[in-house]
Recover the amino acids of this structure.
């Protein structure tokens, strides 16, 4: 059976590989080439070297979007993972209705980003109106509105991953710690956290990439207002590419920089958490 699998393995892999090359590799390589060109359509691209990239780093709106996105990602990664983990810790205990709570916490993840953005815009603007403010009054309101929205959407999803990790901890390990007189805090620090490191790795990776790639919610909640001060990277790239004639190449260059930034952060994060798993 094993020999048959090895023999026919290329036949089963080939369609997926071809689709991956056609659907991702070729467009990506061509997109990198277009980032060095001036164009309005892909048929009239003219190579201009590093001009598009020099324009990026003199674009103060883009640089603000980069720092705004970085700060947003740091805050949401911490909040989502901490709250998701403690929600999982609570809902793995024997409490009445825990399956209902798990379902309720997970449900926001099933709602589309655009819908969530408009729903939370109405809710938050309704609350802020009591104080004579709106989400677009300043970037601070937009920032925390986006944080609340993403936390509400993602905490339940991360909670499910953490629940799976906690439930895989051997019961005898927990019992041994309790018999040895370990407190709840000591069990959490020396048993639970080390044993759920694979789940922490996955959740940290997902929240990092979700934070940097946020687009739908940003578009619906603030659309970058006021004066593009709450505009995140993905929305900035979209507005550059589709909103400014003659800046298609600059938008493409921003997309390449964005890809490299997210890829580097994801790889570094994955390496660090994997090393932590090995040490544990």
């Amino acid at each position: 059976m094993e020999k048959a699998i090895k023999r026919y393995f290329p036949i089963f892999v080939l369609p997926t590989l071809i689709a991956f090359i056609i659907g991702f590799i070729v467009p990506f390589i061509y997109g990198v080439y277009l980032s060095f060109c001036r164009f309005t359509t892909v048929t009239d691209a003219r190579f201009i070297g590093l001009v598009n990239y020099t324009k990026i780093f003199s674009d103060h709106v883009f640089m603000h979007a980069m720092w705004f996105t970085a700060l947003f990602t740091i805050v949401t990664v911490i909040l989502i993972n901490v709250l998701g983990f403690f929600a999982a810790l609570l809902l793995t205990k024997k409490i009445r209705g825990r399956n209902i709570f798990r379902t309720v916490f997970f449900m926001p993840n099933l709602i589309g980003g655009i819908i969530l953005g408009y729903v939370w815009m109405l809710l938050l603007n309704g609350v802020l109106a009591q104080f004579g403010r709106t989400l677009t009054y300043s970037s601070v309101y937009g920032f925390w509105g986006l944080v609340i929205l993403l936390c509400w959407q993602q905490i339940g999803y991360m909670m499910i991953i953490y629940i799976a990790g906690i439930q895989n901890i051997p019961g005898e390990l927990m019992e041994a710690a309790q018999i040895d007189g370990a407190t709840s805090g000591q069990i959490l620090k020396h048993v639970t956290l080390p044993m759920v490191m694979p789940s922490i790795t996955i959740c940290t990776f997902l929240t990092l990439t979700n934070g940097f790639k946020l687009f739908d919610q940003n578009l619906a909640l603030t659309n970058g207002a006021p004066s593009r001060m709450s505009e995140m990277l993905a929305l900035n790239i979209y507005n550059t590419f589709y909103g400014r004639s003659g800046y298609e190449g600059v938008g493409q260059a921003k997309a390449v920089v964005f890809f490299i930034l997210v890829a580097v952060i994801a790889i570094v994060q994955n390496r660090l958490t994997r090393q932590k798993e090995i040490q544990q």
Observations:
- The chain has twelve helices and two strands.
- Residues 2-34 form the longest helix (33 residues).
- Strands lie at 37-38, 46-47.
